[in-house]
Amino acid sequence: MKKLLILGVGAQGSTVAKRMDEEPNVSELIIADYDEKAVNDLASQLTKGKPLQIDATKKENIVKAAQGVDLIVNALPLPFGRIVQEAALEVKTNYQDFALTDADDMPWIDGAKYMLSETSERFKAIGKTGLMSTGSAPGIISVVTADAANRLDECETIYNFVWEGVVAKRFLPFWWSPQVAYGDMSDTAVAYENGKIIETEPFSRPMMVKFKHVDEPVRLVEHAHDEPLEMGINADKYLKGAKNIYFKYGGAGVEFAEPLYRMGMLSREPVELDGQMVIPMNLALKLTPPAPKYHDEIKEILDEGLEQDNGAMVVQAIGMKDGKKIMVESYVSAPGCVEAFEKSGLTGETYFTGQGGALFTKMFVNDKIIEPGMFTPEMLNEEQRKYYFDEAAKLEITVETTIEEVK
Fold first, then answer.
1. In this predicted structure, what is the pLDDT of residue 299?
2. pTM for the full predicted model
3. Among residues 86, 121, 142, 348, which is most buried (max CB within 10 A)?
4. Alpha-carbon dihedral sign for residues 110, 111, 113, 114
5. Contact (Cβ atoms closer than 8 angstroms) between residue 164 and residue 251
6. Region 316-345: what's the mean pLDDT?
7. Residues 43-55: what's their mean pLDDT?
8. DSSP code string of 195-206
9. pLDDT digits over 142-165, tens only?
10. Among residues 106, 117, 115, which one has the least CA distance to residue 86?
11. For residue 407, how many other CB atoms are within 10 A of its CB?
């Protein structure tokens, strides 16, 4: 029987808590957040939930809360990652994060390498596992990428395509945190090209991609995401030696944010306005509506009707198999926004990410992830990937893979 500490009771943390409340191998869930009302509300919906109000900016508070737990699930915002990770190491327990935990005293690329080397050794030393990037992208898409690449004898190029096609009738640019969205839209992106991690400009190097369930080709661009960085580090050992790995992103949010980026509205540098210093990013955030969070709020938006309820997550792995150049193409399908709300009271975005994360937690709980060290999902082995796909299918998250020769 496992005891879990879940930090953060937003959409992702709440989804993990609800799924783990159903697991026979879970004896207790400590539901922790700074928002006392939120933890009490969530815990009251669970049979195994124990609410805890916590200030997670202090490592000692997390250490105290984590005594005797088998796993800490970090569903807090990105800046909390390193604190939670250090607490897990001190308590000597397993650790799961929805994001790629930052090494906050070094640049992003160097920090990722540090996590998968030195920090990995620290987890090995205590015989525990750390698993990062466990949402939808990265997360689900990472498992799909590993499956696609490992169908090849030798991999040359990997594309991760994500297109957000849910459009409300009201002004709602993002179905997730605008702060996270604008940060990713304005940060330097990365690609893995010719065997090296390179930096790229946001919104650059566009591609027109035709998805089989979308009428017209869609425009996808460079976007700051963890996949090329993580997968580039792991390419030789886990992805059949891939030399080029790209993450391309598009949709309504990109189309809205790109002009803001071009005019400097996503800058974090102060500018003078009518005699006052203003940070453009803060002004953009102030004027952008937050993502819908509560049941009645989501229902109101959906009752108004959506202009579009679509999306795409597609992986293409190109390389050699039996002396022929082929492409393995995998489409990930999941409930759309309306269907996800009917099933769970969540938006399509939070359903996909939260359920995807909960499946990794389920693997911990059922001893499917036991190797000591620090990992990202593309490092899971074939047996672990199969378990993940089988469990995902029960949630109507499925993968359709085709293989064709490249002429």
1. 94
2. 0.94
3. 142
4. positive
5. yes
6. 95
7. 95
8. TEEEEE-TT-S-
9. 999 999 999 999 999 999 999 999
10. 115
11. 4
User: How far is residue 356's CA from residue 15's CA, in Å, rounded to a whole number?
Assistant: 10
Looking at the predicted structure, is the pLDDT value of residue 201 above 90? yes
For residue 55, give the DSSP letter.
-
CA gap 225, 197 in Å, rounded = 13
Q: Which CATH class is domain 140-345+399-405?
A: alpha beta
Residues in Cβ contact with 285 at an 8 Å cutoff, skipping those fewer than 6 apart: 178, 179, 182
Q: State whether residue 325 is helix, strand or coil.
A: strand
The DSSP result for 79-139, as a single string, is: GGHHHHHHHHHHHT-EEEESS----TTS-HHHHHHHIIIIIHHHHHHTT-EEE---BTTTB
CB 237 within 8 A of CB 225: no
Who's near 30: CB < 8 A, 6+ residues apart? 3, 4, 5, 6, 50, 52, 65, 69
Task: Give the pLDDT of residue 28.
Answer: 97
Q: Which residues contact 201 (CB under 8 A, 6 or more apart)?
A: 188, 189, 222
94 Cβ neighbours under 8 A, 6+ residues apart: 70, 71, 72, 88, 128, 129, 130, 131, 364
Q: Which of 375, 396, 379 is nearest to 112 (CA)?
A: 375
Q: Which of 152, 99, 168 is nearest to 310 (CA)?
A: 168
**Residue 89 corresponds to which tokens in the numbers above?**
């190491």
Give whole-number Cα distances, 107 to 137, 285, 322, 327, in Å. Answer: 21, 25, 41, 34
Cα-Cα-Cα-Cα dihedral sign, residues 292, 307, 180, 273: negative
Provide the sign of the torsion angle of the four alpha carbons 68, 72, 77, 78, taken in this order. positive
Question: Which tokens hold the place of 290?
Answer: 């937050």
CATH number of 2-97: 3.40.50.720
Length of the chain: 407
Grouping H, G, I as helix, E, B as strand and the rest as coil, residue 173 is coil
- DSSP secondary structure letter of residue 377: G
Which pLDDT band, with edges at 50, 70 and 90, does 310 fall under?
A: very high
Domain boundaries, the chain: 2-97, 140-345+399-405
State which amino acid sits at residue 22: E
